[in-house]
């Protein structure tokens, strides 16, 4: 049996154990969080319970050894729940358990055997593992709860945007329809001032409808529901057609709008609809942001592996933070101070997402002196997305080699 002197030294009061902790903290455990001291009553009760359970474990081992009753379990069980209840960080918990180990070994030094020391090490190491497992499980549960909340929030946001967008489409279509009827003078002749005002109404409604459509596209891309429809397409006709569609906008804004598209661009394997969207958003964004008498240019070039679509405009400087925002979860840019837009810009962030779907790249060069050049690089052949698991295995094999 453990001697009475050792028992009395190990079965300490809470105040004595707290003094030991404070002494150790002052000398080398200065990193202990203030939570240890604000909950000192609960902490010392937990330490005391651990010491007493450890003493009982040592007594049982010696009794069993004397009576040849076989091995004794080295698990500390009753104090585990107390460590969980005081909710200290893992660093603080490990530091406090180390104090218990050192104190216990010091008090046993006079009459302890090697078996006693091994039991103390094993029991307290096992306690650390139990507490660490509890910490990990608690963190995993919290992450799962956070994930569920995030998914639910994203689902509600998507539903709200979808419903709001669809509800907006109906009145906008009506506004556009009646505007066109009035401009065609189906309800009587218009004077110059009335025609100008109606033109503004039609343009504003068209811009708003485009924003709504872009929001729906963005939601599809984020939800992973947009699948590319690959086929072989002739590049030059597609680019020229999109350019021609936007000529009226350039005339209204009095912008020099031209293209330099070679006839020998050939064909690429891509989603024609998405490519048209990419070019349209690039040009429309440039035309909307470029001041009167400015210039917008569309050009393209290709090599064996890549088609590069290039737009240039003389608009205001595109700041780095605006470029970075295109990679956000909801990449909608407020460009009024930077690019001269009146409101929100969704087209360029969508371009980045569309290019990513094609496994291409997007480059932006912008400065106040020369304007903005955007280069979209799209593979001429359909590419397969790399398998992350296969890449990790390959990297691991190279590292071991």
Summarize the structure in short:
The chain is α+β, with helices and mostly antiparallel strands and about 400 residues long. About 60% of the residues lie in helices and about 10% in strands. It contains 15 helices and 9 strands.
Which helices and strands appear, and what pairs or packs with what?
Layout: H1 4-10, H2 14-27, H3 34-38, H4 40-67, H5 80-86, H6 90-108, H7 114-183, H8 192-222, E1 231-234, H9 235-245, H10 247-252, E2 256-260, E3 267-270, H11 272-289, E4 295-302, E5 306-313, H12 320-325, E6 333-334, H13 336-339, E7 344-345, H14 347-357, E8 361-367, E9 371-379, H15 388-400
Helix pairs in contact: 2-4, 4-5, 4-7, 6-7, 7-8, 8-14, 9-11, 11-14
Strand content: 5-15%
Nearest-integer average pLDDT:
79
Distance linking N and C termini: 56 Å
User: Would you give the CATH topology of the largest domain?
Assistant: Heat Shock Protein 90
Percent of residues in helices comes to: 55-70%
Using the 3D structure, state the CATH architecture of the largest domain. 2-Layer Sandwich
Number-wise, the strands total 9
Q: What's the number of domains?
A: 2
CATH class of the largest domain: Alpha Beta
The secondary-structure class comes to: alpha+beta
CATH superfamily of the largest domain: Histidine kinase-like ATPase, C-terminal domain
Low-confidence stretches: none
The gross shape turns out to be: elongated
Q: Kindly report the spatial arrangement of strands forming the biggest sheet.
A: 2-4-5-9-8
What is the count of DSSP helices, taking H or I runs of 4+ residues? 15
Biggest beta sheet summary: 5 strands, mixed
Question: Nearest-angstrom radius of gyration?
Answer: 36 Å
H and E order: HHHHHHHHEHHEEHEEHEHEHEEH
